[in-house]
Amino acid sequence: MADPILSSARLAKAFGGLVVCDGVELGVYPGEIHALIGPNGAGKTTLLNLITGLLTPDAGTLVFRGRDITNMSVPARARLGMARSFQVSSLFPSFTVRENIELAVQACQGSSYAFWRRPDRDAAITGPANQLLQRVGLGELAQRKAGEIGHGEQRQLEIGMALASRPALLVLDEPMAGLGPASARAMAHLIQQLQGNMAILLVEHDMDAVFALADRISVLVQGRIIATGKGREIRENEMVQEAYLGTQCSL
Q1: What pairs with residue 34 in β-bridges?
Q2: What distance in Å separates the CA atoms of residue 173 and residue 15, rounded to the nearest whole number?
Q3: What digits encode the pLDDT tens for the residues 53-111?
Q4: CB 3.0-4.6 Å disulfide test: which of 20, 29, 36, 201 passes with 43?
Q5: Could you give the domains of the chain?
Q6: What DSSP letter does each residue of 29-40 carry, written as one string?
Q7: Residues contacting 32, CB < 8 A, separation 6+
Q8: Residues linked to residue 22 through DSSP beta bridges, in sequence order
Q9: Cα 169 from Cα 107, distance rounded (Å)
Q10: Which of 122, 7, 106, 123 is nearest to 65 (CA)?
Q11: Is the pTM of this model over 0.85?
Q12: Cα(135)–Cα(116) distance, rounded to whole angstroms?
């Protein structure tokens, strides 16, 4: 098997006397969808914040694409090929869907120096933007204001903006949160379409989606990874059943 694109060793983080991540060992491999699941309060968001650079660990190391990124800034990690979407969409609501994508492309190309040049007249920006709009299924909504489209479509737009950087690792923090059944299916289809093109680290509470999408699953409970494996291995793991999956009625 290839080396992991992302790995953590003995990663730890505490807030006062509350230990949130406790010696986390995690490996994400190129091209796989790796789901991180666990009960509320398990430390999932804290772990994502450590991985993406919003928090600095108290101990342990993080390696991404062969480089130690433990103390690296968020922009530096992005330049190495890491992108993230958040639980709450972060868009420019008064801009059109196309303009949001174009701004993301422009920023990732390092062409912000051309501030006074309209991006919609620059083929180097409009070409990739059009491709991204089609890739995330928003071509028909390109001229709509981002603040006027549905919540699920906003999540698709956020992923499109993240894809503008052509990431090697895409970190998705509950992309289906708050979505209705149709929007959740559309999001699952989009994530499935990305499979193999990049590594995806997925935090999601929709267990049906997790087991349908993920190549491997890690279970985080009280700040510790208690199991990692394929879907069947996780379903049949007694510790996982007791700590988490036994509370999931759909399973």
Answers
A1: 201, 216
A2: 21
A3: 999 999 999 999 999 999 999 999 999 999 998 655 678 899 999 999 998 998 887 65
A4: 20
A5: 1-81+168-251 (3.40.50.300), 91-166 (no CATH)
A6: -TT-EEEEE--T
A7: 199, 200, 215, 216
A8: 12
A9: 18
A10: 7
A11: yes
A12: 28
